[in-house]
Amino acid sequence: MNIDISVVMPALNEEANINKTIEDLLNAFRKLKINGEIIVVNDGSTDGTKTITESFMDKYTNIRITNHQEPQGIGNAYWDGVEESNGECITWIPADGENDAFEILRYLPLMDHVDIIVPYVYNKETRSWKRRLLSKTYKAIINLSFGMILNYMNGTVIFRRSILEEIDLRSGGFFFQTELLIKTIKKGYLYAEVPYGLNIRASGQSKA
Asked: Is pTM, for the whole model, over 0.85?
């Protein structure tokens, strides 16, 4: 059976948020009639993240988990999830509940025409002014340094899996997403930028 999309979900001590995040993703699969799978990468959590995920696995065959004994960083979590995935397309949604899965997955049909879907946030007020300033500065530095014109680089980008198989020098940290975009766009792969909205994080602090 072909999997339309694999969603990698990095999780580090997200017991307060991961239940809602998984439910949100499953609902998006149903609403959009997507044959998707979820790969939770438990990045060394010391709380109930693993137990909660396993309770979902008892009910849903399209959810799996891979565990790190110690935190290895969001980039390494992403790549380990990719290695475990089976989908024709791959994206990632952190377990912190900030992302509305429907907001990105509704664009999946665009993958019939492009190789990469790059979302940018339209409701930036959901984040603090410090976080917005940091993002704006980061975007300016990357665009100027690499000759890019992207609106946002750290969102839930959708890639065709064949692209990821060609990428070398994989970053293990937060830079992984930007590295991917720079390398794939420079190779000439087609991309589309699309607007998407963020939720307000319900609990805990961002690991970014």
From this structure: yes
Crossing angle for the helix pair 18-32 and 49-57, to the nearest 10 degrees: 30
Q: Which helix (H) or strand (E) holds 163?
A: helix 161-164
Q: How far apart, in whole angstroms, are the C-alpha atoms of residue 62 and residue 37?
A: 5
Sheet hosting strand 116-121, strand order edge to edge: 63-68, 36-43, 5-11, 89-92, 158-160, 116-121, 191-196
Query: Which of these, 187, 36, 175, 192, lies nearest to 116 by C-alpha position?
Result: 192
Contacts of 204 (CB under 8 A, 6+ apart): 13, 14, 16, 17, 96
Our CA dihedral for 176, 92, 189, 119, rounded to 10 degrees, sits at: -100
pLDDT, one tens digit per residue, over 96-135 is: 998 999 999 999 999 999 999 999 987 766 667 777 777 7
